[in-house]
Amino acid sequence: MIGRSMEQLAVGDVAALSRVATAHDLAGFVDSVGDRNPVHSDPAFAAATPFRPGAAIPPPREAG
């Protein structure tokens, strides 16, 4: 859809947007909604729940 005007769009046109959520993105979300549950920010805590790291928070990245 990039570069197309509204007049060039038609019923049935499809567009997709994707991005990888970072720890910074999730921290901003947590701050904006006020949800201070440690499952969102503490990998050790999340690991002991059904959510596990990676579902509630991104897993730590390896250095390199």
Structure notes:
This protein is mainly alpha-helical and 64 residues long. The protein has a domain at 21-64. It is built from 2 helices and no strands. The chain has helices spanning 23-33, 43-47. The longest helix has 11 residues, at 23-33. It is elongated and about 50 Å long.
Beta-strand residue percentage: under 5%
Number of helices: 2
Q: Over the alpha carbons, how many angstroms does the gyration radius reach?
A: 18 Å
**End-to-end separation:** 36 Å
Secondary-structure element string? HH
Low-confidence spans: none
Number of DSSP strand runs = 0
Throw out a few tags for this protein.
about 60 residues; mainly alpha; 2 helices; elongated
Produce the secondary structure layout:
Elements: H1 23-33, H2 43-47
